[in-house]
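Chain A, query sequence.
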Amino acid sequence: MIDIKNGDRAFEDRPEFVDPATGGIINLPLDTKLGQKLLLPLARCAALQRLRHICQLSFAHYAFGGKYSRFTHSLQAAAEASDEMDILKDRMSRRFPGTFDQRLADAVVTALLLHDVGHAPYSHTFENVMNNLGENFHHEEWTRRIITEDGDIQEIFARFMRSNPEYGSAFTRRYGCTFPD
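Chain A, predicted structure.
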């Protein structure tokens, strides 16, 4: 189904997202537990959907044409991370059997999906203007705040953690994020 408002295929049971820069399909690992129960709900939540309207390259599309959104970039980054984790898993299983931690790999893919959620309109241009005005604005801090304070994201993570408690430490160990029960 084509979502006319957003110009791509809507997120259905087996959604596809077309990369406007390449015309290729962005392949998130949606056939996995992580994809169905965490990545897809996160991609559907308002915090990520707002990234559809934020240009990855700020004003560059006026000079060079084409629009590449932070949303597309986030999906592509997660898909690339998933591919790289598969390669790493294959190599580690041959050289160091039993040492690959799928939960940490899934945490990396999830982090890449969410890594730009704190960007404001006009991305780094907005950030530079705010900092020049004396505000201390950094999208990384806003990303952390949105991930740890947004009610929808919190609920998605809480639901995932309740049904997959083995993932708890992979998502919370390094960054100190906690999610409601």
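The chain is about 55% helix and 5% strand. Strands lie at 2-3, 8-9, 17-18, 25-26.
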